[in-house]
Amino acid sequence: MTERPPTLDAVAQRAGVSTGTVSRVLNNAQHVSQKARQAVERAIEELGYVPNTAARSLAARRRGAVVLAISSEDPALTANLFFAEVITGVNAVIEETDLQLLLVLAASQRGQDRFTRVLHAADGVLLLALREHDPLSKLAADSGLPVVHGGQPLGHTPRHYVDADNRGGARLATEHLISLGRRRIATITGGTDQQVALARHLGYREALALAGLSEKRLAHGDFTESGGAAAMTRLLAEHPDLDAVFVASDAMAAGALDVLRERGRRVPEEVAVVGFNDIVTAQHTQPALTTVRQPIEALGREMTRMLIRLINGEQPTSLILPTELIRRDSA
Amino acid sequence: MTERPPTLDAVAQRAGVSTGTVSRVLNNAQHVSQKARQAVERAIEELGYVPNTAARSLAARRRGAVVLAISSEDPALTANLFFAEVITGVNAVIEETDLQLLLVLAASQRGQDRFTRVLHAADGVLLLALREHDPLSKLAADSGLPVVHGGQPLGHTPRHYVDADNRGGARLATEHLISLGRRRIATITGGTDQQVALARHLGYREALALAGLSEKRLAHGDFTESGGAAAMTRLLAEHPDLDAVFVASDAMAAGALDVLRERGRRVPEEVAVVGFNDIVTAQHTQPALTTVRQPIEALGREMTRMLIRLINGEQPTSLILPTELIRRDSA
DNA sequence: TTGAAAGCGCTAACAT
DNA sequence: ATGTTAGCGCTTTCAA
Q: Do A149 and A75 reside in the same domain of the chain?
C-alpha cells in the first residue's frame, strides 16, 4: 500500500556508482567526474528521489532548520501587521536556502516547553520578544544556538540584533513638526517598559533639545487606541496651548485624533499630529495620518541573513535599519 | 568545545535499564514497571535529556511535523491580517501536540521546489491557496500526504476543507439592508475568478430573490480599495437610484465610501453600505463600516484539528464556519 | 516486563 | 575520483 520513497542507495544502484558518489553530488562537492555526476542526476530524476531530511540531519549533525519564535505575550506583535510582515521577510531569505522554517508562537507555559524541544531541532533562532525578561530569551540563550533578536528587549542589549531606527524616526517626525513652525510640541509615549517606547521618546527629546524647545508636554500611553485617546485628553487638560503632538504609534494617534475632533481642535491647522508605524489604518484616519514607516519586512530579511551568517561561523554585526517619514494630511 | 547532548543510551545507562525500556517510557507504552519508569524519569531529569527529533523520525518513520503552506500569489492573503490570524489559530492547536509547524510562503518557482522537499519532512499539509489551479494544490495532492484546504479553490471542491460561510454572511448582510427598508440594493463583487467572490455574490442574490427585489445593480471589483472606488463610480452612473450597496470586501467598501462622500451621497441616510471581513480599518472609515466578520482564527484551528484527525487515520468531514454581522454606522 | 539487536537513510572518514 | 563502512540516536521486532 504505502509505497516507500526511493533511497539514496537506490539512486546509487541505478546510476551504477557508490553511495559516496551520490552523496557528493547531492552536496555538490568537488572530486566528482562529469560522467558520474550526470549519471547520478539522471537516476535522481528518473526515480524522483528526494533526500530524507531526518536521516540527513541525523548523520550530518546539522538540523537544517531555523526557528522563528514570537512571544505572543506581546499584543503589539500580533495586533498589527508586524508579525505577518516579518514572516514575509524571513521567508524570502529562507527560500534561497535549504533551511526549513519552524514557527513557534509561544504564549502559554505549555508553549515554552515545546519551545525547548523545537530548539533541539534547529540550527538557529530568530526571536521576536520585546518584553524585558521574556522567558523565550533565556531559553534561546541557554540552548547555545545562534540567536538573532528583532528589536532590542529593554534591559540588556542582545549580542546580535536587528532593529528599526526608532530614535531616528522619532527625531525625523519631531523635526518635521518643528519645520512646520510648531513650537509647543507634545508627545504621547508608548509607556516605559518597552525599548521602542523609550527610543521614540528619546528621538523626540533630541529634536526638541536641538531646537531649544520645551519637552514638558508629555503623556504616557500604552500603544493602544484607547490609551492614546486618554493620553490626548490629559494633554489637552494640562497643556491647552499645544500646537502639535508626536504620538509614538499610529493606533494611539487614531485615538488622539478622535479626541481632538471631539474637542473641536482642527488638525493640522491648530494641532499637527504625527504617528509611528504606518499601519494600514493610517491612510483612513481623518485626516490621513503623517507617520514614520519602519522597514519591517527588511527587518525579517536582515535578521535571517544575520542568523545564517552566525550558523556559518561568521561574526556579523548588529544592524539598525533606517525609518522614513510618510507625509500625509495630519502634519 | 561543542558539548554533545545526552542520548537515550546515556539515560538508559544512568537509570540502569535497557534502551528499550527508556523508549517505552518516552512513548508512554504499557508494560513498564513503576520502578523502571521512575528510574528513567529521574535519569531524564538529571541529564536534561531531550529526544533527538531527527533520529526519532528516522527510526519511527513518522516525521512529527505539519506544514502550513500559503500561496503568496494571493495578495488578499498577505494584505490583510488574514494570514496572521490563521497562523495564530493553527499554532494554538499545534501547541497541544508534539508536532512542529513548518511554514512555507511559496511565491517563486524556487519556492515550489522547496515545497516538495518540505512535504517530505511532514506528516500533513495545511493549504491556503485560493486561486484556481494553484501549483501548490497539485504538489500537495501528489505527495500523498493528508491535505486540508482553507477555503475552497474555484473549480474543484477539495476532499477536506474548512471554509467560512461566505454565502450565508453575504445573505445576512443583504437581509440586513432589506430590513432597513432598502429596496434598490446594489452589490460590488470581488471578481469572478475566486470562489469567495462567487459565494458572496450568491448570498446577495439569494436574499434579494427571497424578498422579490431586483439583482440588476451590479459592478465587479477586484478586492482592492481602488477597484471598489471604480466600481462604485460605475454603479452611480448606471444606477443613480440605488439606496444601498453590499460590498464583497471592506477594502473595496472603503473605496466605495470615498466615492460616495465625493459625490455627496450621505451614508447611511441616502445610501447604506455593508462590507465583508471586518478588517481593522472598518472601524476607522467615515462612517464606521457595518460588515461581516469571519472566524479566521477558528478557521486555522479547525483546519489543524482536521489535519491531525486525518493523520491519525480518521475520516473527518469538511466544515463551514458561521459568519457574523457587525453593526456599525454605515448601515 | 525487560533486554538485545537490527535497522531507519544518510554522511564522512578512510581506503583505494 | 570513487568505493567502503562505521556510525548518527532512536524505535521496534523478537527472545527471554
A: yes
Residue B93 vs residues A297, B26, B89, B140, B288: alpha-carbon distances, Å:
27, 22, 7, 21, 34
Q: Does A78 touch chain B (CB under 8 A)?
A: yes
Q: What is the pTM of this model?
A: 0.90
- Residue A289 · residue A328 · CB < 8 Å: yes
Residue type, B98: D
Task: Indicate which CATH number applies to the domain containing A49.
Answer: 1.10.260.40
Question: In which band, very low, low, confident or very high, does the pLDDT at A221 lie, cut at 50, 70 and 90?
Answer: very high
Parallel, antiparallel, or unpaired: how do β-strands A324-326 and A291-293 relate? antiparallel
B246 and B310 in a single domain? The answer is no
State the smallest CA–CA distance between residue A72 and chain B in angstroms. Answer: 9
- Mean pLDDT within B150-159: 87
Encode pLDDT of A29-75 as tens digits: 878 888 889 889 999 999 999 999 999 999 999 899 999 998 866 55
Q: Cβ A120–B52 below 8 Å, yes or no? A: yes
- The answer to whether position B255 is within a domain reads yes
**Nearest nucleotide (C1') to the CA of residue A50?**
C9
Residue A271 lies in a domain: yes
Closest Cα to residue B294, out of B98, B154, B120, B163? B163
B81 touches chain A (CB under 8 A): yes
Assess if residue B325 is contained within a domain: no
A76 and A125 belong to one structural domain: yes
Local structure of A164: helix, strand or coil: strand
Q: Could you give the CA distance from residue A272 to residue A92 in angstroms, rounded to a whole number?
A: 38
Range of the domain at B13: 8-60
Percent of chain B with pLDDT over 70: 94
Do the domain assignments include residue B262? yes
